[in-house]
């Protein structure tokens, strides 16, 4: 008993080392446990491999190796981010600068796809493809030349007549009671004369004339560019489509080829339908203007036919142009002309156009109007022209691909 008390008088932590070892089986026992504290090798052998060493025992805490790299340089990070933003901004600016080129390419590709059915029709009649392309391009050039040739002489004559009649218009204004009263109150004639005799009047006039000339020159260059690009696209359209189809995996190539050919066919039918609607509008305008005895019936009929190619608002623009031209000679007949074309516009919108376009593009009227408005807001007139066939392509993809997959899901 005394021995037990003597032995138990020590520190509590020193009692029963064997029992402590049994209670903590993860701690090493035996000779390895008795190794000196400074012996790193002995301690390494004594400790099990699965138990991490603490920082007090000399072991590195988790994640210490990751912190051994270079410290984060926020200046380099900021400079890299600023360089990326600058590169993106320069890319956007470059795209904006070449926007006109992309629009010309889109228009040329659109025309090439739309005129392809005519080329295929001529090929089925025995002409080689190159001869069919030359014939179509010659027809396009002759059409544009004929339109300009019939439009320029009447405009020249009317501008000359207006310039010669300006003194008579001024005299009539002076003799008018209302204008005489306004001139007496506000001095309109004196203000007009001061504007005409001012030093910067000539500069403003010539600046406007040069601006108009620059716009006309740019339009001619863009038209020539589109015609040349259309010629090349028509010649290489089979190769372009075949290259596009080869980018699709072979297992899906047949379906994509069928879908792509159908889209090309619908775009061609849309252009053919628009040309047919424009031709009908031009013929109706020519017959009406000839019946009322208008001197430039052919020129104005061509204007009405060309403006009819513009979706939604083309017929309205042509009606306003025809009414304004007729009103110069007879205001009453100009009002009658406006009413006539507005009635024809309703017939075209609800009878002629739906029957032709329903067979060609098969697009709901709501989709047609919405797509034309969105395309016009994005790319102007070109966007309005391209929006309807693009909507037809999207509708076809939904009907042939998306909806069947959703039905099978």
Automatic annotation (TrEMBL):
Keyword Ligase (UniProt): no
Membrane topology: Multi-pass membrane protein
Keyword Mitochondrion: no
Any GO BP annotation: transmembrane transport
InterPro entries attached to this UniProt entry: AI-2E-like
Keyword tags: Cell membrane, Membrane, Transmembrane, Transmembrane helix, Transport
Region (Disordered): 1-67
Annotated Low complexity bias: 27-38
GO cellular component terms attached to this protein's record: plasma membrane
Pfam families given in the database record: AI-2E_transport (PF01594)
Main location: membrane
Protein family according to the UniProt entry: Belongs to the autoinducer-2 exporter (AI-2E) (TC 2.A.86) family.
Protein name: Putative PurR-regulated permease PerM
């Amino acid at each position: 008993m005394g021995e037990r008390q003597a032995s138990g008088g020590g520190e509590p932590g020193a009692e029963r080392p064997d029992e402590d070892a049994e209670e903590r089986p993860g701690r090493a026992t035996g000779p390895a446990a008795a190794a000196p504290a400074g012996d790193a090798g002995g301690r390494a052998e004594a400790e099990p491999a699965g138990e991490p060493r603490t920082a007090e025992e000399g072991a590195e805490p988790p994640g210490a190796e990751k912190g051994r790299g270079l410290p984060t340089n926020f200046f380099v990070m900021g400079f890299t981010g600023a360089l990326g933003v600058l590169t993106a901004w320069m890319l956007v600016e470059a795209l904006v600068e070449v926007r006109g080129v992309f629009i010309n390419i889109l228009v040329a590709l659109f025309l090439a796809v739309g005129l392809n059915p005519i080329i295929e029709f001529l090929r089925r009649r025995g002409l080689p493809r190159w001869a069919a392309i030359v014939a179509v391009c010659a027809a396009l050039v002759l059409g544009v030349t004929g339109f300009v040739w019939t439009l320029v002489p009447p405009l020249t004559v009317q501008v000359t007549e207006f310039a010669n009649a300006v003194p008579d218009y001024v005299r009539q204004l002076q003799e008018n009671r209302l204008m005489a009263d306004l001139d007496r109150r506000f001095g309109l004639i004196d203000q007009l004369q001061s504007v005409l005799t001012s030093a910067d009047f000539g500069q403003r006039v010539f600046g406007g004339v040069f601006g108009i000339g620059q716009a006309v020159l740019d339009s001619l260059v863009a038209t020539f560019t589109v015609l040349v690009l259309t010629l090349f696209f028509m010649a290489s359209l089979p190769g372009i489509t075949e290259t596009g189809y080869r980018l699709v995996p072979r297992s899906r190539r047949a379906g994509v080829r069928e879908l792509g050919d159908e889209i090309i066919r619908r775009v061609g039918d849309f252009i053919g339908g628009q040309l047919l609607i424009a031709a009908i509008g031009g013929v109706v305008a020519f017959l009406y203007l000839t019946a009322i005895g208008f001197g430039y019936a052919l020129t104005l009929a061509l204007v009405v036919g060309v403006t009819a190619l513009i979706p939604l608002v083309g017929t309205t623009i042509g009606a306003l142009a025809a009414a304004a031209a007729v009103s110069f000679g007879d205001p009453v007949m100009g009002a009658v002309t406006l009413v006539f074309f507005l009635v024809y516009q309703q017939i075209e919108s609800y009878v002629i156009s739906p029957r032709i376009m329903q067979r060609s593009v098969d697009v709901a009227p709501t989709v047609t109007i919405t797509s034309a408005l969105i395309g016009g807001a994005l790319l102007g007139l070109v966007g309005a022209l391209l929006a309807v066939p693009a909507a037809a392509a999207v509708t076809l993809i939904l009907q042939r691909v998306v909806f069947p997959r959703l039905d099978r899901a």
